[in-house]
Amino acid sequence: xxxxxxxxxxxxxxxxxxxxxxxxxxxxxxxxxxxxxxxxxxxxxxxxxxxxxxxxxxxxxxxxxxxxxxxxxxxxxxxxxxxxxxxxxxxxxxxxxxxxxxxxxxxxxxxxxxxxxxxxxxxxxxxxxxxxxxxxxxxxxxxxxxxxxxxxxxxxxxxxxxxxxxxxxxxxxxxxxxxxxxxxxxxxxxxxxxxxxxxxxxxxxxxxxxxxxxxxxxxxxxxxxxxxxxxxxxxxxxxxxxxxxxxxxxxxxxxxxxxxxxxxxxxxxxxxxxxxxxxxxxxxx
Length: 285
What we know:
Blueprint: H1 3-25, H2 40-50, H3 54-87, H4 89-102, H5 111-117, H6 121-146, H7 150-158, H8 163-201, H9 206-215, H10 219-247, H11 261-267
Helix pairs in contact: 2-10, 3-4, 3-6, 3-8, 3-9, 5-6, 6-8, 7-8, 8-9, 8-10, 9-10
């Protein structure tokens, strides 16, 4: 990424923070009531007070552990189920209808099921996280595998390769861009649901602490939780995208977009006008 783009992104974030500080410090009360919001300085002070404390580190550890376990399970089982449904008629007939019925159900609506089915709240939160990430991974994998051209598979079969060779040499590598697209969506949905599950039935975690701050009317603490959630979500999604770029480094990359005509014209050196060539005189007969 160029230095100019980094500067634009930093300026965008700084402008948003500046607008937040301005609206809250002036207690603007138009249609939106910014007078109830804490200022950026109050949130920063509360964040500094919590950073490095034992409860804050404990909440981070619990939320990250739940995300990692649930997301890894969803990644493995989602890729396996999506590949099986796309490659096998038996799997499509047996698992397809069940998945299509369960997929529209919001993961957070399964909290009562998790409470009744699993012996502890911790396992229930991991189950909710797994369910949230599972279906985006499954659907993306299924579409990516079905979109593969059969020419590659036929070439491997012609050269004597078996089903496992086709699977690990053609199907999974060819579907990697779609798989990582589903993983990127899944990690974001998983964070939404793990925070919601922690608010409902958790004992520790960033979501649980954010809800507790709300119940005691500690609004700067609520925003500390929101900032922490956003930072953790950005960190994990960036990690997934980085791993996706590394895993698909062998794929051809699209060329960088050429600068617009106005930019090229501004960057081009001024043209030096050359004298027009003299017209040759025809010989006089």
